[in-house]
Amino acid sequence: MLRFKHIILFSKILDDMDIKPYVEYLERKLQKIENEGQRELKTMRSNKVPDNEIASRESELKSHKKNDMAIDIFAFVSTNLHKVQDDLILFFQKTTKKPIEEIEDLTIEEMFEILKELFKNGIPQMLKDKVGDSLKKTL
């Protein structure tokens, strides 16, 4: 269960990573990708491309959009992680009750499992409140 102290610490981490401008950038980028994809699909329809080919292309575009987003988020996080290293370790330690040494030795898979669990317990709403409407569209 996330407590107020956890949320405050996570809020500090988001501020230190300067996430709001990044989310706004990501939203613009995703909108551009979406618009380009819709134009391509519209062109395919006007050229009377068979529906199964359009559906296949639409699926490819969605997959590319997810991949682009994942790569972009990974790049942002990896280039900013050093700014919040101590607070992030403290956040994980406080929310999991594990010793700091154990937190520092987590595998990436274990870290993501912890994050998934935390997201189930209230971080999405706190994130939405923190960065506003732009994140609601992105998440």
Overall pLDDT score: 83
What's the Cα radius of gyration? 19 Å
The ordered H/E elements are: HHHHHHH
Structural class by helix and strand composition: mainly alpha
Number of helices: 7
How far apart lie the N and C ends?
Answer: 22 Å
Low-confidence runs of at least 5 consecutive residues:
none
The beta-strand count equals: 0
Main pleated-sheet profile: none
Can you tell me the number of structural domains? 1
What percent of the residues sit in helical stretches (DSSP H or I)? over 70%
Rough shape? Answer: elongated
Structure characterization notes:
The protein is mainly α and 139 residues long. The chain has one domain. Helix content is 87%, strand content 0%. The chain has seven helices and no strands. The protein has helices at residues 4-17, 19-46, 51-96, 100-104, 108-120, 123-131, 133-138. Helix 1 packs across helix 3 and helix 2 packs antiparallel against helix 3 (51-96). The longest helix is centred in the middle third of the chain and has 46 residues, at 51-96. The protein is elongated, with a radius of gyration of 19 Å. It starts with a helix and ends with a helix.
